[in-house]
Write a structure and sequence with these properties.
four-stranded antiparallel sheet, 4 strands, 34% strand
């Protein structure tokens, strides 16, 4: 019986180790404080128009003073913007901010979803 219990604990520990390895290996970078203003450039691959903002998904995004692995995958451009279409190149001076925390206990968590 002790061999079965030890084998079960070993499999459980191996599962936790695999989960930790996956988190470290495939985890996405997250901003923890405001950065900027800094230069941001990239080629537009998708555009979403929202009231008061334009969300742009750029390809080959480059952000000044950040290593390529720490680059972001989506930009929200506030105010009036020129008509952007996929294929355009954008270059802006931006302040990068982390996603907001939930507004109330149990509310939707944008940070966790991303």
């Amino acid at each position: 019986m002790s061999l079965v219990a030890a084998l079960g604990l070993g499999v459980l520990a191996l599962g936790f180790a695999a989960a930790q390895w996956g988190t470290v290996t495939f985890g996405a970078p997250v901003l923890d404080h405001n950065l900027g203003p800094m230069g941001v450039a990239g080629q537009v691959i998708a555009v979403e128009r929202l009231p008061g903002a334009t969300c742009v998904t750029p390809e080959r995004l480059r952000i000044a003073r950040l290593a390529p692995v720490r680059t972001l995958e989506r930009l929200s451009l506030a105010g009036n913007q020129p008509c952007l279409v996929p294929g355009n190149w954008v270059r802006v001076r931006a302040v990068l901010s982390p996603l907001p925390p939930p507004t109330a206990l149990g509310a939707f968590d944008f940070e966790r979803q991303s």
